[in-house]
Specification:
Layout (H helix, E strand, L loop, with lengths): L2 H47 L2 H26 L7 H19 L3 H23 L5 H20 L1 H4 L5 E2 L13 H24 L2 H11 L1 H6 L4 H27 L1 E2 L6 H14 L6 H19 L3 H16 L3 H23 L1
Antiparallel strand pairs: 1-2
C-alpha cells in the first residue's frame, strides 16, 4: 500500500462516521420537534378535557410561571438576589384592579399599564442595587415586600384597604364558544407564550451574554466592556415588569385583590419555587409554577396543616437530590438515557 493510500484510508473511514453523526443529529432534532408539537397539542387541548377547577389550577401555573420567569432573569441569569419579588407582583395586580374597578377599562388594556408601572419601580430599585450585593441586597428587597402590605392598607380610598377590591372576570367573546375558565386559560397561555418567547430571544442576544458575564464574574465582565450599572439596572426593571404582568393576569383570574394576598410569604414562595424548578433554565419557571400551585393543593387534601410542612420538606428533598433543581434533574436523566441508548446501539 502506498503512502498516499495509507493517508486516504482514515479519511474514507471517517466519512461514514460523519454521516452517521449527521443522521443521529437529524433524528434527534426531529424528535425534539415532535415532542414540542405534542406538548403544544396537550397544552391547547387540556382545558377542553378538564373540569373548571383543574383549568383554574393550570391557569395559576401559567401566572406563576411568568412571575418566576422574571425572577429567573434576575437571579438565575444576572446573579442578583431578590426577596421582594412579590411586591412587583402586587403592583401589577393592583394596577389592573384599580383600572378595572375605578375606570372601567377593558381587561387587556390594563396589561401594558401594569407592566409599565412595575418596570418603572423596578428601574428605581435597580439604582440602589448597584451599590449592594448578596445579603445586603436581599435585605433591601425583603424590606420592600414587608412595608408594601401596610402601605396598601393605608390608601383605602384607592386600594379598598384591608377589604380589597372585588372585580369581574374577562367575558369570553361569543364567537369563541369558550367557557369563562377556558377563556381565562387561553389569555394566560398567550401572555405566557409571549413572555417566554421574549426572554428566550433576549437571552440569545448580546444582552443575554452580558447578563451571564455579570453573573459569572463582574470584574471580568467590566474588563470586557460590559456596562455593569446599565445591565444590572435593566435586569431589575425587566424582572419587575414580568412580575407585574403576572400580577395583572392574576387579577383577571382571581377577580379579587387584597393586601393579605401579597405578604412577604409570596416573595419567599416565588424564590423557593424558582430554586426547586431550576435556576438559569427556561423550564425552571414552569416546573416551579407547578410546584407552587400543586404541592400546597395536594397536601391540603391530606391535612389542613400539612401544606407548610410538606412544602418545606419537599424543598429540602429536592435540594439534596437535585441541587440544580427539577430542570437539572430532568436534563441529567435525559442525558443518561441517551448514553444508554447509544451504548446499546454500539453493542448491537
Amino acid at each position: 500500500m502506498t503512502e498516499s493510500t495509507k493517508q486516504a484510508a482514515p479519511v474514507a473511514d471517517a466519512a461514514p462516521a460523519t454521516g452517521r453523526r449527521d443522521v443521529r443529529a437529524l433524528l434527534q432534532e426531529r424528535w425534539q420537534w415532535l415532542a414540542a408539537a405534542a406538548l403544544v397539542a396537550a397544552v391547547c387541548f387540556a382545558p377542553f378535557q378538564l373540569v373548571p377547577f383543574r383549568v383554574f389550577q393550570l391557569t395559576m401555573v401559567l401566572v406563576y410561571a411568568v412571575a418566576l420567569l422574571g425572577l429567573n432573569l434576575l437571579v438565575g441569569h444576572a446573579g442578583q438576589i431578590s426577596l421582594g419579588h412579590g411586591a412587583f407582583f402586587a403592583v401589577g395586580a393592583y394596577t389592573s384592579a384599580i383600572l378595572l374597578h375605578d375606570h372601567g377599562l377593558p381587561h387587556l388594556v390594563t396589561l401594558p399599564f401594569a407592566a409599565a408601572l412595575a418596570f418603572v419601580l423596578g428601574l428605581g430599585l435597580g439604582v440602589p442595587a448597584l451599590r449592594l450585593r448578596g445579603l445586603y441586597l436581599a435585605l433591601v428587597t425583603l424590606a420592600i415586600a414587608i412595608f408594601l402590605v401596610p402601605l396598601i392598607k393605608r390608601f383605602e380610598s384607592v386600594t379598598g384597604g384591608a377589604m380589597g377590591l372585588t372585580l369581574e372576570k374577562p367575558v369570553p367573546p361569543a364567537w369563541t364558544g369558550l367557557a369563562e375558565d377556558q377563556w381565562l386559560y387561553f389569555l394566560a397561555l398567550a401572555v405566557t407564550a409571549l413572555a417566554f418567547a421574549s426572554v428566550y430571544g433576549l437571552l440569545r442576544s448580546r444582552v443575554g451574554r452580558a447578563l451571564h458575564a455579570i453573573r459569572d464574574n463582574e470584574a471580568a465582565a467590566e474588563v470586557m466592556g460590559v456596562k455593569l450599572s446599565f445591565y444590572k439596572t435593566l435586569a431589575f426593571a425587566w424582572s419587575a415588569m414580568l412580575a407585574g404582568v403576572a400580577g395583572c393576569v392574576y387579577t383577571w383570574t382571581i377577580a379579587f385583590v387584597a393586601p393579605d394576598s401579597f405578604t412577604v410569604t409570596l416573595s419567599i414562595t416565588l424564590l423557593a419555587g424558582l430554586v426547586v424548578g431550576g435556576l438559569g433554565s427556561m423550564a425552571g419557571p414552569v416546573l416551579g409554577g407547578l410546584f407552587v400551585v400543586y404541592v400546597p393543593s395536594l397536601s391540603q387534601d391530606i391535612n389542613k396543616g400539612a401544606p407548610g410542612v410538606v412544602f418545606g420538606l419537599l424543598i429540602i428533598v429536592v435540594m439534596l437530590v437535585a441541587p440544580t433543581g427539577l430542570a437539572g434533574l430532568a436534563g441529567r436523566a435525559a442525558r443518561s438515557t441517551r448514553k444508554v441508548l447509544q451504548k446499546e446501539r454500539r453493542n448491537a
